[in-house]
TrEMBL record:
<comment type="function">
    <text>Involved in D-lactate, but not L-lactate catabolic process.</text>
</comment>
<dbReference type="GO" id="GO:0005739">
    <property type="term" value="C:mitochondrion"/>
</dbReference>
<comment type="subunit">
    <text>Interacts with CSRP3.</text>
</comment>
<keyword id="KW-0007">Acetylation</keyword>
<dbReference type="InterPro" id="IPR016166">
    <property type="entry name" value="FAD-bd_PCMH"/>
</dbReference>
<keyword id="KW-0496">Mitochondrion</keyword>
<feature type="compositionally biased region" description="Low complexity">
    <location>
        <begin position="11"/>
        <end position="21"/>
    </location>
</feature>
<dbReference type="InterPro" id="IPR016164">
    <property type="entry name" value="FAD-linked_Oxase-like_C"/>
</dbReference>
<dbReference type="InterPro" id="IPR006094">
    <property type="entry name" value="Oxid_FAD_bind_N"/>
</dbReference>
<dbReference type="InterPro" id="IPR016171">
    <property type="entry name" value="Vanillyl_alc_oxidase_C-sub2"/>
</dbReference>
<dbReference type="GO" id="GO:0008720">
    <property type="term" value="F:D-lactate dehydrogenase (NAD+) activity"/>
</dbReference>
<keyword id="KW-0809">Transit peptide</keyword>
<dbReference type="Pfam" id="PF01565">
    <property type="entry name" value="FAD_binding_4"/>
</dbReference>
<dbReference type="GO" id="GO:1903457">
    <property type="term" value="P:lactate catabolic process"/>
</dbReference>
<dbReference type="InterPro" id="IPR016169">
    <property type="entry name" value="FAD-bd_PCMH_sub2"/>
</dbReference>
<dbReference type="InterPro" id="IPR004113">
    <property type="entry name" value="FAD-bd_oxidored_4_C"/>
</dbReference>
<protein>
    <recommendedName>
        <fullName>Probable D-lactate dehydrogenase, mitochondrial</fullName>
        <ecNumber>1.1.2.4</ecNumber>
    </recommendedName>
</protein>
Amino acid sequence: QMGGASPCCWGPSPLSPSQQGSGVGDGVLSAFRSICGEEGVSLGEAVREQHGKDESVHRCRPPDVVVFPRCVEEVSALAKVCHKHRLPIIPFGTGTGLEGGVGAVKGGVCFSLRNMEQVLDLHPEDFDVTVEPGVTRKALNAYLRDTGLWFPVDPGADASLCGMAATSASGTNAVRYGTMRENVMNLEVVLADGSIVHTAGKGRRPRKTSAGYNLTNLFVGSEGTLGIITKTTLRLYGIPEAMVSAVCSFPSVQAAVDSTVQTLQAGVPIARIEFLDDVMIDACNRFSSLSYPVTPTLFLEFHGSEQSLQEQVKTAEDITQSNGGSDFQWARDTETRNRLWKARHDAWYAALALRPGCKAYSTDVCVPLSRLPQIIVETKEDLIENRLTGPIAGHVGDGNFHCLMVVDPNNPEEMHRVHLFTERLARRALAMDGTCTGEHGVGLGKRALLCEEMGPVGIQVMRSLKDTLDPNNLMNPGKILQREEP
Ligand SMILES: Cc1cc2nc3c(=O)[nH]c(=O)nc-3n(C[C@H](O)[C@H](O)[C@H](O)COP(=O)(O)OP(=O)(O)OC[C@H]3O[C@@H](n4cnc5c(N)ncnc54)[C@H](O)[C@@H]3O)c2cc1C
Ligand SMILES: *[C@@H]1O[C@H](CO)[C@@H](O)[C@H](O)[C@H]1NC(C)=O
């Protein structure tokens, strides 16, 4: 048994089979059908399996039934039926999560939100837009194409924007534009009893507010455990006048990370600064047919006016050179730039391609910037000592990096070594005043670490909030917080 007392990501379910299955009876099914139509209710095995897992190594936990509501009224009506019959509710965006968040660990009803895919209120002059939960980040940017505006938060996958709000996602642009936390202005949420709340007041979208508790922030990162997000109002940005990207190679990890820290300390408003270690750049070279030197590397991007770009680039170049970095290799035209960032976004698949047949598990600790060189250097030593494949790719400008652990799921001894490694890494981050998860969330695998991170009083406050909003523990039960089962 892996992991001893702490729940292992990949271990068997903590519940006995008799506790599973929640008995979605015929009465409930016909109530569902009368709400969202025959088409909107699926019991098919393939559909249930598809909705019982995300892109993580957590095993599939299919729900008893999947419903496909078309509007908030249907979501609310369906939730009321679930509430009456005490059925678990699991929201499903696009299933690209990395922490097992959509698994129906207690059975129940998966709410797939993909049929709600309208972009609702675009206010270009105010730089905001409201979208339904089926809209993905790429779909929104395609919709905005001719407006001169864009939404910058960019996880590697084409995730749903409400799913991104639910996990407090970020990506390569966060160092300049912030994460979902900074970019969600309002949410419409269906609570466990079917009631509908607008976290900043219905239709409101001021740039700032001091109006009471920040309910919006409470639901950002709640991973479906407090309610179903049915609309999100997002901040938009003007597409910068000019953008250039560059690649720079370094003699050591320390030199690359020191350059990142110094560039930020110098006040360069860098848009993207991504670190790839030698193993990762090698994997990307192979997967994306590139030919960068196999050494610690930074991918950088600068946004601004032509004039401000010159200044930013000059400072960054001076800093990288003083740390022994190579000359920048430029990607000025859109095609080369896109190729570069596509390679970065494909890092997950590039890592998987290192060992065909294996699965990937991504760590995502985040530490204060000044601690970053030390934690990456120690982590690389740990990987080598323990004979593990874990290319490192990091949003280093935020102090956040991923070890993409490529592991043979059929080799328990190796799985065990990976598990112990990820725990050591998380504890190393906690000891450096950081967090066990910078952007992927807690899901199933980090519940014990969350307790260490928050401490008993913090966890108790989280529990009380959960009990207040969802007294019957119906919303995505078993995620984030561990509950003693009666
Ligand atoms: C190749 C790859 C690269 C990735 N890179 C990044 C990255 O750089 N940064 C990053 O942050 N993440 C990254 N991710 C993880 C993933 O894309 C994000 O976690 C994303 O926010 C998940 O969105 P989703 O719609 O797919 O959510 P899902 O996987 O469907 O769900 C995730 C969780 O949110 C809940 N949820 C989903 N929709 C709603 C809703 N409408 N209301 C309430 N709860 C909801 C679910 O119940 C679940 O707990 C990556 C994933 C992959 C596969
Ligand atoms: C409240 O939280 C949201 C989402 O995290 C954030 O965008 C907003 O700025 C916060 N508001 C205040 C006043 O802090």
